[in-house]
Design a protein that fits this description.
Layout lengths: L13 E4 L5 E3 L13 E4 L7 H13 L4 E3 H10 L4 H10 L3 E5 L2 E5 L4
Antiparallel strand pairs: 1-2, 1-3, 4-6, 5-6
Helix pairs in contact: 1-3
Length: about 110
């Protein structure tokens, strides 16, 4: 049985797997039709680590936008006492690209 961690967005513990083997959170992305659900999964409960809370912090700052100025997230993370190294590891695990623009660095979500 594979280990599934709680959802990054809502911290939910219930997931489902569709026919293409992709795993989805039941809270954030509920199944629309009964035939889509191949298997119901439960996540393992774990303590909220600093890396995980940094990932949630980035996702909350990003919201529904595709890109965000890196300086604003870093400044907010400093006020929330999140270390820069932890923030960098969280960004890398979320697969956010860091792109340089004329106005400064921007973190961009990968295309789906």
């Amino acid at each position: 049985m594979e280990q599934i961690t709680p959802c990054l967005k809502c911290n939910g513990l219930v997931f489902w797997r569709d026919r293409s083997n992709a795993i989805h959170c039941s809270t954030c992305k509920p199944a629309r039709a009964a035939w889509l659900i191949r298997e119901r999964l439960r996540a393992t409960t774990e303590a909220n680590s600093r890396l995980r809370s940094a990932q949630q912090f980035i996702l909350l700052a990003l919201g529904n936008r595709e890109r965000i100025a890196a300086r604003t997230v870093v400044d907010a993370a400093e006020r929330a006492t999140i270390a820069p190294a932890t923030l960098t590891r969280a960004r890398e695990q979320l697969k956010l690209r860091s792109v340089r623009t004329r106005t400064g660095w921007v973190w961009v979500r990968p295309p789906h």
